[in-house]
Design the sequence.
């Protein structure tokens, strides 16, 4: 069955709208669950949030396949396609984290981010950046699938890990303020002491999980980032005769790599954890978005899409 380009784009637009609505409802569901203190779902694992995120993952995957069929090339040739692929990668990371940790609070962190990326691609990105176009000669290479896919998967993993680190800092700061609200001269009742102990125990458990899983996910994303940079260098040599040209994207990719190399070095060699590591990861979060969004949209270099210029 042959589908026209107009029909394909209409179906794709419909799918993206459904994804946005589903993600918004999913985000609200996670927030409500955590608001009522339901942090885990051991007894009722396949809850609405997990199922709806699975549906979103499938719809985004179908949208990418449809785009691939319509364009006759791997759907990573422009900024819009990379955003959709990043959204899909983030849903994959979310599902893996939730499957392993069996906790609901992960969705409070990841769902808004996926919603933002999907909404930015579908509703805010200019129409000219969403159109299907022919590949330029340099992109007609098998390295397109290898390099761009690995880089976006690394971004998804690093962003997810950094979000957990940011959540660690927010919860830690809130807990510190909470515990200093009560004057030292105030005599606490037994009930109050027990409540505080329960609160601190639960909070410490959450903080420990956030720190550990942030470390693991960033540790997963870093090798992908390394492979992505190396494959990009090989591709650049084939296309332009130079492994490294200090293109803005290359420079910021190197900065991103150095930030997370420092993060992993300080954790593995120096034994850092908690606040110090989370601060470095939070810096890495900003750098990743500059590398991905900022450089691409400023209209400078081989990787840009020239929105602002």
Sequence:
């Amino acid at each position: 069955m042959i589908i026209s380009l107009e029909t394909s784009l209409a179906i794709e637009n419909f799918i993206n709208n459904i994804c946005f609505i589903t993600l918004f409802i999913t985000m609200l569901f996670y927030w409500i669950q955590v608001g009522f203190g339901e942090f885990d779902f051991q007894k009722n694992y396949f809850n609405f949030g997990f199922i709806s995120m699975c549906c979103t993952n499938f719809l985004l995957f179908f949208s990418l396949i449809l785009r691939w069929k319509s364009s006759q090339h791997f759907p990573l040739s422009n900024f819009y396609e990379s955003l959709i692929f990043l959204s899909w990668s983030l849903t994959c990371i979310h599902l893996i984290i939730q499957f392993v940790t069996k906790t609901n609070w992960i969705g409070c962190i990841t769902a808004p981010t996926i919603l933002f990326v999907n909404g930015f691609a579908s509703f805010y990105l200019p129409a000219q950046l969403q159109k299907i176009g022919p590949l330029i000669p340099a992109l007609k290479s098998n390295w397109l699938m290898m390099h761009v896919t690995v880089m976006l998967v690394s971004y998804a993993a690093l962003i997810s890990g950094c979000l957990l680190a940011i959540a660690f800092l927010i919860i830690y700061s809130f807990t510190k303020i909470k515990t200093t609200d009560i004057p030292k001269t105030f005599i606490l009742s037994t009930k109050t002491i027990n409540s505080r102990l329960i609160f601190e125990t639960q909070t410490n458990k959450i903080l420990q999980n956030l720190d550990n899983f942030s470390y693991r996910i960033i540790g997963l994303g870093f090798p992908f980032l390394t492979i992505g940079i190396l494959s990009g260098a090989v591709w650049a040599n084939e296309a332009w005769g130079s492994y490294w040209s200090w293109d803005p994207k290359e420079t910021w990719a190197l900065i991103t790599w150095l930030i997370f190399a420092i993060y992993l070095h300080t954790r593995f060699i120096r034994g850092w954890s908690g606040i110090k590591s989370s601060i470095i990861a939070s810096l890495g979060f900003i750098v990743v978005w500059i590398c991905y969004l900022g450089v691409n949209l400023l209209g400078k270099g081989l990787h840009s899409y020239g929105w602002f210029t």
Summary: Confidence is low (pLDDT under 50) at residues 305-309.
